[in-house]
Design goal:
This protein has about 120 residues and is α+β, with helices and mostly antiparallel strands. It has two helices and seven strands. It is globular and about 35 Å long. Helix 1 packs across helix 2. The protein has one domain: predicted glycosyltransferase like domains (Thrombin, subunit H). A hairpin with a 2-residue loop joins strand 5 and strand 6. The longest helix has 19 residues. The chain has a six-stranded antiparallel β-barrel.
């Protein structure tokens, strides 16, 4: 399967109503809100190049800005984001990335594409 073939089929099955390919992916994240000094540690439920759903028992209100940091191995990515959706099931919030450095966006895109390809590749039994 070619590099984009699996991604395209995953997108056609699951992502047509969204601007970005979104994949289920649990990553440790650290959230800093302007109104609080403390960092909130959480996990993503899914991830796309344009945003993520972050698990939180007490999500912040829609419109709340935040700094989201994703650590994957030795790489740390800091992204300015804003809350765009709040959910009670699962508890958490959808965030849209509003400011991402080009190299960080490429890194996030690589994570999403790798996960999509892994999920769409048939497994031998």
């Amino acid at each position: 399967m070619g590099h984009n073939e699996g991604v395209t089929s995953y997108h056609l099955r699951f992502g047509d109503r969204r601007q970005w390919l979104r994949v289920p992916l649990s990553l440790q994240v650290h959230l800093r809100f302007a109104c609080a000094d403390a960092v909130v540690n959480s996990q993503t439920f899914d991830l796309s190049e344009g945003g993520a759903f972050v698990r939180m028992p007490n999500p912040r209100e829609v419109g709340t800005p935040l700094l989201l940091r994703i650590d994957v191995g030795a790489r740390s990515v800091a992204i300015q984001a804003v809350v765009v959706r709040v959910s009670s099931s699962p508890p958490g919030m959808g965030v849209r990335f509003v400011e991402v450095a080009d190299e960080d966006r490429e890194f996030v895109t690589g994570l999403v594409v790798a996960q999509a390809e892994q999920r769409s590749t048939p497994r031998e039994i």
